[in-house]
UniProtKB/TrEMBL annotation:
This is Enoyl-CoA delta isomerase 1, mitochondrial. Pathway: Lipid metabolism; fatty acid beta-oxidation. Coiled coil: none annotated. The gene is ECI1. Gene3D superfamilies: 2-enoyl-CoA Hydratase, Chain A, domain 1, 6.10.250.170. Keywords: Acetylation, Fatty acid metabolism, Isomerase, Lipid metabolism, Mitochondrion, Transit peptide. Belongs to the enoyl-CoA hydratase/isomerase family. Its main location: mitochondrion. GO terms for biological process: fatty acid beta-oxidation. Homotrimer.
Length: 295
């Protein structure tokens, strides 16, 4: 039997038929299909319910580098074209963390070519997620700063674990600026006034604070995050899909089109901005502060 997964009772896993086959990877019998397990993005498709669980799996903190973003994009594309898939839960395989956001090392002392490739991968992953026809829910079982917050906000519904975890767009604290499409998503989520404050301050919120400004939809104990998502999904799955998809698309189209129409310019702008001496200096100091935390 596979080791119990966080936030999921042994009984529930036994019921769902979790087994560890000869290859050593966790797979599910009968109604579950694992799209991918060896990389940084695990996809577990339940063909009976039409719900896929996509878990970021890049310990220790699921920082989003070029590989992770490319894998996430491909996974989302596959699910989008899978007619049996109705919903997707975005979660983490790393304890205590949803995602630490973009991999800062992709932005520090990198080449302009790599920066552009990295940014394109982020753009594609986000366009696939925010523009998805699927019901998308974020199971936030840990910290979710910056790019992690973007991924969560890009889902249709967010359930966060109570306790010490934080979520927010903290870019200004790193001496960088949230791109316009990060801002657009936050505006659509919590409104203009809260976004202005949140972005200028680079605010990181506790789960309760996030709930109070509408950044997340529900806060529950850690072990209840997945069951709560599953319960909420039942409501969403009852809505006629075509009507829901048209509604979602019409509400998100302007923001998606804004990036689609200037992807290359945005990628070039990112590479130029990030390679400024002042920005590199700020990032260097931030990396040092993360490392100092340990000593
Ligand atoms: C005019 C407009 C112009 C716009 C142009 C564009 C500008 C650029 C826009 C870029 C947008 C950026 C988005 C981002 O996502 S930036 C990333 C921001 N992320 C963070 O600030 C999170 C930092 N991490 C933490 O706070 C903590 O790690 C965390 C709370 C998440 C977890 O804490 P914990 O104690 O559990 O873990 P550690 O801190 O010990 O970390 C473990 C190791 O992981 C390394 N680490 C952490 N986060 C990252 C990261 N994001 N990238 C890379 N590496 C990371 C950390 O250093 C530890 O490493 P070591 O074990 O080697 O020390």
């Amino acid at each position: 039997m596979a080791a119990p997964m966080r936030g999921m009772s042994v009984l529930r896993q036994a019921f769902q038929g979790l087994v560890r086959p000869a290859g050593g990877q966790v797979c599910r019998q009968v109604q579950h299909r694992c799209y991918s397990t060896p990389g940084h993005v695990q996809v577990d498709m339940n063909s009976e319910t039409g719900v896929a669980t996509v878990r970021l799996n890049r310990p220790p903190v699921n920082s989003l580098n070029l590989d992770v973003l490319t894998e996430l994009s491909i996974a989302l594309e596959k699910l989008e074209t899978d007619k049996s898939c109705k919903a997707m839960v975005l979660a983490s395989a790393a304890p205590g963390i949803f995602s630490a956001g973009l991999d800062i090392l992709e932005m520090y002392q990198s080449t302009p070519e790599r920066c552009v490739a990295f940014w394109r991968a982020l753009q594609d992953a986000w366009l696939n997620l925010y523009g998805s026809r699927l019901i998308t829910m974020a199971a936030i079982e840990g910290h979710s700063p910056a790019g992690g917050c973007l991924l969560a906000m890009s889902c249709d519904y967010r359930v966060m674990a109570e306790g010490k975890f934080q979520i927010g767009l903290n870019e200004t604290k790193l001496g960088i600026v949230a791109p316009f499409w990060f801002t657009d998503v936050m505006l659509n989520t919590i409104g203009h006034r809260e976004t202005e404050k949140a972005l200028q301050l680079g605010a990181l919120y506790s789960a309760q604070q996030a709930l109070s400004i509408g950044l997340v939809d529900k806060v529950v104990p850690l072990a209840e995050v997945m069951p709560t998502v599953e319960g909420e999904l039942k409501n969403w799955l009852q809505i006629p899909a075509a009507a829901r998809v048209i509604t979602k698309t019409s509400m998100r189209k302007a923001v998606l089109d804004r990036l689609r129409s200037q992807k290359e310019k945005d990628a070039q702008f990112f590479a130029d901005f990030i390679n400024r001496d002042s920005v590199q200096k700020s990032l260097g100091m931030y990396i040092a502060s993360l490392q100092k935390k340990k000593n």
